[in-house]
Amino acid sequence: MAFMLTCSESLPHGCAEPAVDRRYELMLHWLHRVRPVAPREVAPASGDASFRRYFRVRGADGTAIVMDAPPDKVDCRPFVALAEAFRGLGLQTPRVLAADLEQGFLLLSDLGDRQYLAALSEASVEGLYGDALAGLLRLQTGGDLATGLLPPYDAPLLRRELELFREWYLIRHLGLQLQEEEQDRLDAAFAMLVASALEQPRVWTHRDYHSRNLMVIEPHNPGVLDFQDAVIGPLTYDLVSLLRDCYIAWPRERVEAWALGHRERLREQGLADTADAATFLRWFDLMGAQRHLKAAGIFARLHIRDRKPGYLGDIPRTLNYVWEVSRRYGELAGLRPLLQEWALPR
After folding, report:
1. What's 48's domain CATH number?
2. Most buried one in 77, 118, 135, 217, CB count within 10 A?
3. Predicted model pTM
């Protein structure tokens, strides 16, 4: 979830004025030391689906962003390391201007306030997605799997993410009491999705490469945000995050054409050479089902645990992707009645 927007009524999920709490006071004190600034020059930036908060700092030399990440809940070190590593591959990530890892404060360069989501239209989509896919190609072909910088996106993690759908969306949000047969059907679908993800070539994976985390910038579009949870993961994960975005949808035929065009560019770079077009699209579809089930669970958790209800409006689009994929793959037949009975009518 992107963090570089100034708070305004146009933001679909809103952002509140920061409480003048102890951490805010600590942040201002730290900020005065690293970049002298009057408190009136610090304004809230948009929210985040985590414990992090963001503020835009305005001064005579331009703007910057302060990240407030409580160290007992958030580790800033991956952000700092990956910002540098991704920039080394040619991606435009925020530069870390100052850091206090013990207190959990970072001062970052400002990538502006124009998200992809607000800029996408019929007139702009080919150019914006062309830039985003070029950036993704650099990430996937340039990342060194042997560095040890990124953890693996392994079976336990994939499974834990899928369980978010069961626990937070079905049980806690919808209030369902699942019968044994329904649990078994979910288990079978989850196992199949995990197996499909593990079949794929492994690459550096941003893990949230979508329209709220890509900024329209000049030059060297796009600006890339929210990369601190990157992993070594399946080849199609970031591709499906971009093309089957939880926040904006495009016709299936167009999405598949973009996906297969990216496959050809990967093949030119020596990746995906063992996957024909049908296999690649199967990977893409099933990876999307895994991601979208996880996302529905996360959106429900944001509402229930974190009191952020704005993401509930994105669940219908997100689960509709899963419904469409389940109709095309017999292995997910057991998931269809569960979606039809539980999820889509709600």
Report:
1. 3.30.200.20
2. 135
3. 0.91
